[in-house]
Design a protein that fits this description.
With 683 residues, the chain is an alpha/beta fold. The chain is built from 30 helices and 20 strands. α15 links the parallel β11 and β12. 49% of the residues are buried. The structure holds nicotinamide-adenine-dinucleotide. The site of nicotinamide-adenine-dinucleotide (NAD) has 23 residues, from α15 and α18.
Length: 683
């Protein structure tokens, strides 16, 4: 007998065992109709005397992979998931969860409400709510510690990382791991065995073994926090998770649930969670380009050419070798080629040393890379990415030759940071095949790829660029041509403002620490030292970076920069830099007595960024505010929990930013002024 309980849940009874199947593609999210169906299933299992036991599973590719987070913004309608799970757990007939794919968030909480859990060998289970600035709010913080102990539970919930089936079994999270294709049969078999068994059902909410043990471990929570300090830095959700698990250990289940719910609501309405949810959606949006869809033909990229084996070229080539695409790397001199290939090999070997690649993988990948000093070797590649020196003359030489050498239909891309892609396209007879593929350094690591659309780039070329980004595990953001595209253009005013602020009198370590407290891994002055003082040119005739470089101080890579560095790379303000600051102040007639507070530092550095972001939007360089946020987070390590610059601006208050810019003597962008006066927002 089979019954449909809701649009997404059905129940089939066979030999006294009800199999409840959730069918809500693509990931069986626990939306309203699934919750209604599960309530109906629980009612039926409870009341139908023909049913003696049940299995809960799903159709398609996974056990439920979480809540329906679109509902977060529209409002969640009854029945709420916690009540659904409580009802299932309270049933007097054994219920087995048959877990496969990725049981995440509410999906895993549902499984925790079942009396037994069987997992397919390839399944993964996790509670990733922390990544959205939330905590597992359907009993997860209360049941998981009762099942696997507080420490293991905290590990999963504070990191948000899923565990594989084998580990889940070892932890006691699942009762049994079985072959993928035997999952349902094994789950039914277990249900049948359990229905014949007398005695109370194992309800996780009633388990006390772990809570008693954990209650006796007086410094468990302090120890966990000390050991995982990095995961707590700046963010509030991990502390709320810790607090909820403390309740699980100290309080009866019902009281603990109340504590969990109160903490969940605090997080749900927090700016951090709003920011992280914005980023979650923004990350998924970036690949959508108006006018480009499934019907846009893609160009097959089976081989790639990279020109220049320097800092960028090497990293770019690695991205393709990593996914099995052969790459030809072109250099001008044999030494440069050898050095470049050597750096790539060392990179791979270092990864292998950390156990993340086998020696064989290293050789396979190196085997996909062929060096050459002859551009003619690029005659048959599908895509060329140019990463030579940042000079229009050299780019002209390269692109006019490529145009002659490359087969028709080959895509010609430049990794230029600041040069005009439209101008570069004029060096070829096929401007429609030209685009920018702007990687960030180190190119094999940084997750952002700006796909720069030239005036004449064809839809197919852009669609292929966006798709390729995904293939090499980067997040693409589409940019139009301008000086610096999105991320670099956005952050240039930040760098400039940091220099002005330093000269005006705020010490470098105070500027840097204010931005670290905001959430950046390092402040702008330390960042300059890391990038290299010779890489960025600031406006003005006498600049601090120019003076430092003149003294052969180029930052961390050579002799230190603003800071001197010890062998552990810890920086202290360099006496040489302090002298230079004085010298430039005198030269520019700056008193150097304006020391700002941390809040003033944040405003002074970030308001100009917001202003630039507004210009990037109004000029149509970026498609959406969310794209700018993603570019800042992935390209410049902007703290995700602040939402990126545009989301942060919305939360911080646009009128305040307009007033602040005016007070700094900066003209607010038209779009910013308009939104501020209308009570509008970027995001
Ligand atoms: P780099 O100096 O490290 O490497 C450039 C390499 O190109 C050198 O090895 C050089 O020998 C080689 N080369 C020069 N002319 C050539 C030619 N005609 N044919 C073949 N090889 C040639 O420079 P980089 O930092 O890798 O920068 C390369 C490009 O990437 C520039 O356009 C730069 O603006 C851009 N970029 C750099 C970064 C960064 O952080 N370094 C980030 C994004 C984009």
């Amino acid at each position: 007998m089979s019954v449909t309980l809701s649009d997404t849940v059905s129940l089939t009874v066979d030999n006294g065992i009800a199999v409840v199947a959730i069918d809500n593609p693509p990931v069986n999210a626990l939306g309203l109709s699934v919750r209604e169906g599960l309530v109906a299933a629980a009612d039926k299992i409870g009341s139908d005397t023909d049913i003696k036991a049940a299995v809960i599973t799903a159709k398609g590719r996974t056990f439920p992979a979480g809540a329906d987070i679109a509902e977060f913004d529209t409002g969640i309608t009854d029945p709420w998931l916690p009540a659904v799970i409580d009802q299932i757990e309270a049933l007097e007939k054994p219920v087995v969860a048959a877990i496969f794919g990725t049981a995440l968030g509410g999906g895993l909480e549902l499984a925790l409400g079942c009396h037994y859990r069987v997992a397919a060998a390839s399944a993964r289970m996790g509670l990733p709510e922390v990544k959205l600035g939330l905590l597992p709010g359907a009993g997860g913080t209360q049941r998981l510690p009762r099942l696997v102990g507080a420490e293991a539970a905290l590990n999963m919930m504070v990191s948000g990382k899923p565990v594989k089936a084998a580990l889940a079994e070892k932890m006691g999270l699942v009762d049994k791991v079985v072959a993928d294709d035997a999952l349902l049969a094994e789950a039914v078999q277990l249900a049948a065995a359990m229905m014949a068994k007398d005695g109370p059902l194992p309800r996780v909410s009633e388990m006390t073994e772990w809570t008693e043990k954990d209650a006796a471990d007086a410094d468990l929570f302090d120890r966990f926090k000390a050991e995982h300090g990095r995961l707590f830095r700046g963010v509030i959700a991990p502390d709320m998770i810790l607090d909820s698990v403390k309740s699980a250990v100290a309080l009866p289940f019902k009281k603990g649930l109340e504590a969990e719910n109160a903490n969940f609501m605090k997080l749900f309405t927090s700016d951090q969670s709003k920011a992280l949810r914005h980023i979650f959606f923004a990350m998924r949006e970036t690949s959508k380009v108006p006018g480009i869809g499934k019907e846009t033909p893609l160009i097959d990229v089976k081989s790639v050419g990279v020109i220049g084996a320097g800092t960028m070229g090497g990293g770019i080539a690695m991205n393709f070798a990593n996914i099995g695409i052969p790459v030809k790397i072109i250099e001008v001199k044999a030494e440069a080629l050898e050095r470049g290939l050597g750096v790539i090999r060392k990179n791979y070997e270092n990864t292998a040393k950390k156990g993340r690649l086998t020696a064989e993988d290293v050789e396979t990948r190196m085997g996909l890379l062929t060096g050459s000093l002859d551009m003619e070797d690029l005659a048959d590649v599908d895509l060329v990415i140019e990463a030579v020196f940042e000079s229009m003359e050299i780019k002209e030489k390269v692109f006019s030759r490529l145009d002659k050498i490359c087969k028709p239909g080959a895509i010609l891309a430049s990794n230029t940071s600041f040069l005009d892609i439209d101008h570069i396209a004029t060096f070829t007879s096929r401007p429609e095949m030209v685009l920018g593929l702007h990687f960030f350094s180190p190119a094999n690591v940084m997750p952002l790829l700006e796909v720069v659309r030239g005036e004449k780039s064809s839809d197919s070329v852009i669609a292929t660029g966006m798709k390729l980004a995904g293939a090499i595990k980067k997040t693409p953001v589409l940019a139009r041509v301008c000086d610096g595209f999105i991320a670099n253009r956005l952050m240039f005013p930040y760098m400039v403002a940091s220099q002005e602020m330093l000269l005006a009198g705020t010490p470098m370590q105070m500027i840097d620490s204010a931005m670290r407290d905001y959430g950046f891994a390092m402040g702008p002055i330390a960042l300059l030292d890391l990038i290299g003082l010779d890489v960025i040119t600031f406006p003005g005739e006498m600049t601090m970076t120019g003076e430092l470089v003149a003294q052969e101080r180029r930052g961390q890579k050579l002799n230190g920069g603003f800071y001197d560095y010890d062998e552990k790379r810890k920086g202290t303000p360099a006496p040489a830099a302090l002298d230079i600051i004085d010298k430039v102040r005198k030269h520019r007639d700056i008193a150097g007595d304006r020391k700002l507070t941390p809040d003033q530092v944040v405003a002074g550095l970030l308001y100009p960024v917001i202003n630039e972001g507004a210009k990037i939007l109004e000029e149509g360089i970026a498609l959406r505010a969310g794209d700018i946020d993603v570019a800042a987070i992935l390209g410049y390590n902007w703290p995700a929990y602040q939402g990126g610059p545009m989301c942060w601006a919305d939360i911080h208050g646009l009128p305040k930013i307009v007033a602040g810019l005016e007070a700094m003597g900066l003209e607010p962008a038209a779009l910013l002024k308009k939104l501020a006066s209308e009570g509008g927002s970027f995001t």
